[in-house]
Amino acid sequence: MSSSIPPLTTIYFTDLSFSSSGGDDPSSVPLIGIDSQTFNVNQTFRGMKLIPPGLHIIHFAQTSSSVKYGICLFTSRQLLLSRYNSQIEDFELRSVDDQQQFEMMTESLGHDYNFMVGYNSIMTDDRCVSWSVLTDHITASILDKVIVLPRGATKRLGWKVCTVTSSTEENKILLSELKRTTPDTDYSTLIDDSESLFNFPAIETKITYRPNATDSEKTTDCLDKSWYFENIVLSTSGFKHLQEFFGQFQFCYLMVWLFGNYAAARQYNNMLKVYSDSKQFISDKPTDLRKFLMLLEQQFTLISEEYFNFDTDMIDVRNVIGAIKSFQSIISELGDKKTYMKRSLNEDLMKVKNVLIDRFEDINEDSFEVPQDFEDNENYLKNLDGSLQYYIDEDDEDAPVVVTGIEWDEC
């Protein structure tokens, strides 16, 4: 049948029964999008065509202020049928794999093909390059791990997500707290398992030292989280290797950027913090830091201020500035044999800083500076060898504390 279907991938909307009661109010017009682009649609819209192979996210909302739903899928050459289910305000997607079924719809598809939006008409070359940078580490196996199927689902064409998708970790915390406060209540039906869930690996940002560590080792492991990152995050937390860690980091960003998902934002912040604080690990793999900085430049350029500011519960700019200062310190301490790499990394880091400077009035080059005379500044810490480690925000509740001779329960 593949020789008969339209080229590349086509998503054919056979029923677009949106209700729109707002008249000419733009905020009441249904929104549909693919990847980084979103557009208003009306009853003449019939789908999207000429979608190239790779990862794509189809997203839609009843209005600009309502919950946004989406489907992540990897396309090859397919004909997909999409139907809007008004009862659950969600789209159903299925593949046309039967030749007889395809022949029955050939006439209507031929007519409606002219009323579909071409992928290349909204995704310019620059946007396609940007999308590649934002998604190049995301694989189907990562999505299988991260997105839990709804109850009763046995097969999926894609992975469903939405603005309010919660995480298994959040649900565990909620249930634990409820059982602690009212232990005699039955909460077995509280968690809705009819919807997808995010199953993010737990990432600790405080207790990051090795078992049976001495006070000195605890200080070292909290200032430089390399041991925790390499032995816990990349070994026992579900990440097979650093590229898979990057892939989940990219996925979390997409969920924040496209859907405003809070659970993904929390995981994103934790991943950024633990990676940027892993000094020795990054120093040993500077090429991977280059990839990461180029990714951050794209991410910070595109994300809306609604999800990226100084007062948000999503991606906090202060956390980002702390990570950049940490990267800056790591790059400055690379050995003389890595002079060329240091130059390239500094150029990449400058691009990230320039994005932030351009976007925020309160940020300038001085925002990333570490004072030369830091010994009397309580916001700065020394390594055990006396060298500067990185900036500690005085308002950062996760800031490590250097101690000796007392019991530690967190750092």
Automatic annotation (TrEMBL):
Source domain of life: Eukaryota
Domain AAR2 N-terminal residues, every copy: 31-146
Chain ranges passing through the membrane: none
Biological processes annotated in GO: spliceosomal tri-snRNP complex assembly
One Pfam family cited in the UniProt record for this chain: AAR2
AAR2 C-terminal domain sequence ranges: 200-360
Homology family: Belongs to the AAR2 family.
Protein's UniProt name: U5 snRNP complex subunit
